[in-house]
Amino acid sequence: MSQQVIHPMVKLQHHVRSLVESNILKPSDSIWKIALLYGNQWHYWKQELLDFGFTMQDPVSELLAVEAWDEE
């Protein structure tokens, strides 16, 4: 039995999707608004997002649209 490891960005994406579904964030909100919810962990997540080519001005909908988080 093998256990699949979930990419950290998938976890972030699920959390952000939950925030959108709860009307805490809007799909049109800028990604930087996530910083208000992550506090001390934001530095890590911001760097991850930048590494994947996002800017802090991109809308949350772009983060939610990613289908696979390949690190190639």
Kindly describe this structure.
With about 70 residues, the chain is mainly α. It has one domain (about 10-65). The chain contains four helices and no strands. This is DUF4327 domain-containing protein. It holds the Pfam family DUF4327.
Low-confidence stretches: none
Radius of gyration: 12 Å
Major beta-sheet overview: none
**Strand count:** 0
What oligomerization state is this entry in? Answer: single chain
Give the ordered list of helices and strands.
Answer: HHHH
Alpha-beta content class: mainly alpha
Protein name: DUF4327 domain-containing protein
Organism: Chroogloeocystis siderophila 5.2 s.c.1
InterPro entries: DUF4327 (IPR025477)
Topology:
Elements: H1 8-21, H2 35-38, H3 42-51, H4 60-65
Organism: Chroogloeocystis siderophila 5.2 s.c.1
Pfam families: DUF4327 (PF14217)
Protein name: DUF4327 domain-containing protein
Quick summary:
The protein is mainly α and 72 residues long. The chain has 4 helices and no strands. This is DUF4327 domain-containing protein.
List its traits.
72 residues, mainly alpha, DUF4327 domain-containing protein
